[in-house]
Write a structure and sequence with these properties.
Elements lengths: L2 E12 L8 E12 L3 E5 L6 H8 L7 E6 L2 E2 L4 H6 L1 E4 L11 H11 L9 H7 L15 H12 L6 E5 L7 H16 L3 E5 L3 H7 L2 E6 L2 E7 H6 L4 E6 L14 E4 L5 E5 L6 H10 L6 E5 L3 H10 L1
Parallel strand pairs: 3-8, 3-9, 6-7, 7-8
Antiparallel strand pairs: 1-2, 1-4, 4-5, 9-10, 11-13, 11-14, 12-13
């Protein structure tokens, strides 16, 4: 299968309620998510990400468009399309009087998984909850509850896993465990869709990234290509203190940092780093050390969503 998910002309308009006017949350989104990939779905708050995810999960009815999940048209085969996807939600919603084991068993039953095909014990081990298997959910820490949400999303062995802000508010240990599990699931063939406000995670984890803003898809590219869109680098030079600077190539922007180092921002498409260094050396500026800083995903995100 080439694509795990195909979305065409997806629209969602929430009707006016009270004094609140009607809101068009999605405005004709077209998106294909390759099977077997780790795919980032990013956007500012209110951009439409949650609406799109809830439509995929079958929790929100779309206004128009077509959604195909693992080859199943959501309108024609709703049960099969829903069975192909598992969602780890952002909210920590669970029955406080159920144990993790009971929660997984109930979830498996809701998906119609026969008892002979359930893998509750393996899931508890996968997410590190074996020792808490019989503890009430109300007694679990926030991090343990997030682990349980991941296990619940996997009970029916979906081909696609959606992680909605999975590391919001979790500690470093849990974050490392989660990403290790995600990598293993992906290596086993599962397609992962990730939404996160921690853009460094998306930069490190995702093969491709789509950015939604104001209900519209504004860009979808391989992560490395998206990073290359930012035509800017910074040359950081230790000159031993502040000195007078010579004229630099047009487009270079020098700035002295608080630590005494000189930072020169420049567009690498028009200026080479060696041109800047030659200009400084030619004017007698001492250069004790040189480093470069490349733009990250946050720089690209801000540029695309604020322009």
């Amino acid at each position: 299968m080439t694509n795990a998910i195909d979305i065409a002309g997806l629209r969602k308009t929430y009707r006016a309620q009270g004094n609140a006017p009607a809101k068009e949350a999605l405005k004709g989104v077209d998106l294909a998510i390759p099977a077997g990939s780790i795919f980032g779905l990013l956007g500012p708050n209110g951009a439409g990400k949650s609406t799109l995810i809830n439509i995929l999960a079958g929790l929100v009815n779309k206004t128009a468009g077509k959604v195909t999940i693992w080859g199943f048209d959501q309108d024609v085969n709703p049960r099969q399309s829903r069975a192909a996807i598992g969602v780890m939600p952002q909210e920590l919603n669970m029955d406080p009087f159920f144990t993790p084991r009971a929660s997984l068993e109930v979830q498996a039953g809701l998906y119609g998984v026969p008892k002979s095909e359930r893998w509750t014990d393996q899931l508890l081990e996968l997410v590190g909850l074996t020792d808490q298997a019989e503890a009430y959910a109300r007694n679990l820490s926030g991090g343990m509850r997030r682990r349980l949400l991941l296990a619940k999303a996997l009970v029916h062995r979906p081909q696609i896993l959606v992680l909605d802000e999975p590391t919001a508010g979790v500690d470093i240990t849990l974050r490392a465990m989660l990403w290790d599990n995600v990598r293993r699931l992906n290596q086993a063939g599962m397609t992962i869709i990730l939404t996160t406000h921690y853009l460094e995670e998306a930069e490190q984890m995702c093969d491709e990234i789509a950015i939604i803003n104001h209900g519209e898809l504004i860009v979808r590219q391989a992560t490395r290509e998206l990073l290359a869109r930012a035509d800017g680098k910074t040359l950081v030079i230790d000159a031993g203190g502040r000195v007078d600077l010579p004229p630099l190539p047009q487009g270079a922007r020098p700035e002295w940092r608080e630590d005494g180092r000189l930072a020169i921002s420049y567009p690498p498409s028009r200026i080479r780093a060696d041109q800047l260094i030659d200009a400084l050396r030619g004017a007698g500026v001492p250069i004790a050390d040189v480093a470069t800083e490349a733009p990250d995903l946050e720089d690209v995100f801000v540029e695309l969503t604020t322009s």
